[in-house]
Give the backbone structure.
Amino acid sequence: MRRIDGRAILHVDMDAFYASVEERDRPELRGKPLIVGGSGGRGVVAAASYAVRRFGVHSAMPMREALRRCPEAIVVHPRMARYQEISHKYSRFFMHSRRWWKGCRWMRRFSM
């Protein structure tokens, strides 16, 4: 959080949300090149951890290409129910914290 003119600016980056939930639930994955997505022949990357992004892997990339760029990546299948559970907690937090902030802009709000 950064303060400007007595006001605080909070930026919440949820781009790697699925990967972050996996790292939170499975600490042995923290800091490792992690991809959440389908591993079949036509699978795609749903989320890429920051560690795997250094290899040029990103969301919506074909899994085959992602694994070509980072063969040592760990691939986990999405757990949508878990992501939904955590997403609702974040949404409730931000909605109940409104009295402390104003002018919120959702660049991309994703709630399942």
Summary: The two ends are 27 Å apart (CA to CA).
